[in-house]
Amino acid sequence: MLKQSPTFNTPSAFSRHQPGVIHVLVTGGAGYIGSHAALRLLKENYRVTIVDNLSRGNIGAVRILQELFPEPGRLQFIYADLGDAKVVHQIFSQNAFDAVMHFAAVAYVGESTLDPLKYYHNITSNTLTVLEAMSAHGVPTLIYSSTCATYGEPEKMPITEETPQLPINPYGKAKKMAEDIILDFHKNSNMAVMILRYFNVIGSDPEGRLGEAPRPELREHGRISGACYDAARGIIPDLKVRGTDYKTTDGTCIRDYIDVTDLVDAHVKALEKSSPGKVGIYNVGTGRGRSVKEFVDACKAATGVPIKVDFLPRRPGDYAEVFSDPTKIKLELNWTAKHTDLQESLQVAWRWQKSHLNGYGSSLVKSS
To answer: 304: which residues sit within 8 A by CB, 6+ positions away?
Structure first.
């Protein structure tokens, strides 16, 4: 099923290459990270097409972007599922893309252990479909959204790009398979490929235009930051912390929390530094690990609410300690995380949460 901006089936700025204008397809651009990336690209005067099936993303984020950038030829939205190869090829045949930022993916570790086939279809198979369409239609650049979950539970910290990839859950395995497919394809291609393995994403647009609005039915699988805000708002009675017996300083998991503003900056730098035939693989993190207990304390301070915490047994598929070594991305892309104050990032996101008590509203796109 395909619903789209009125320009999709008629000749438009989106259907032809224009000197000096880079047209980027942002898959999953109605989602949390994808919408922030689209905003940054639009601010930098890129032409943007968002493709999203709204299974996890929200049309409200797209509407915000359309209001901010209403000029013809700046932004279009296509409602489509990347699992439909015929539709994907139709989109590529009717649009002149210069690059693809592939964010679209289900992304919950816990959910992946309960429904692994969904993850292999949605991540691995859909990435193959996008790659085939890019190849068939001559799109020269791919910026791929990967994850530190591909490393599993390494013996040594911090994690470098050379750390063996031994994922321990279906989410990480599906992303690792997608990476392998991309890299195998690249061996006989001149495509520019940049793979970004991110760590735990937090925060939101500092100007309050966009935020994270996950599905209520997915709360049990969601990010700890979302659960923190829900607890602070009284939507849930307490914040559940899963696992206090890990071999860490305080018994809780250690993670590297990266602000979404820094993350999308890394994507833009990757796009700017891409070149034909180049492969770049980069960790995107702060290089500092924070325990879940530290995170909870920062969340309490950010919200000003004495959130009740319920400590529970470990969640299947989780790992004790993960944080990055960002040396490579600093040297090659001149990127460094700037928003590293955990409490400040949480405060920015909390302001958006408080002013958007129902998220963006309806998640569905209306039929035209």
So the answer is: none
Tens-digit pLDDT profile for residues 189-225: 999 999 999 999 999 999 999 999 988 777 777 788 9
Partners of 312 in the β-ladder: 242
- The CA-based dihedral angle spanning residues 218, 50, 37, 239, taken in that order and rounded to the nearest 10 degrees: -10
**Cα–Cα distance measured from residue 305 to residue 231, given in angstroms and rounded to the nearest whole number:** 9
CA-based max dimension of the chain: 60
For 63-103, write each residue's pLDDT tens digit.
999 999 999 999 999 999 999 999 999 999 999 999 999 99
**CATH number, residue 91:** 3.40.50.720
Q: How confident is the model over 181-190, as a mean pLDDT?
A: 97
Question: Which residue in the list 120, 171, 257, 360 is annotated as catalytic?
Answer: 171
pLDDT single digits (tens) 124-166: 999 999 999 999 999 999 999 999 999 998 989 999 999 999 9
CA dist 287 → 74, 154, 255, 257, 304 (Å): 35, 15, 10, 9, 27
Structural domain tally of the chain? Answer: 1
Q: How many CB atoms lie within 10 A of CB 276?
A: 10
- Our separate counts of H helices and E strands in the chain read 12, 14
* Position 11 in a domain: no
| CA distances (Å), origin 101, targets 268, 339, 356 | 10, 22, 27
Domain that holds residue 130: 21-355
Q: For residue 324, report the phi and psi dihedrals to the nearest 5 degrees.
A: -95, 160
Is 216 within the bounds of a domain? yes
Q: Is 257 a catalytic residue?
A: no
pTM of the model: 0.94
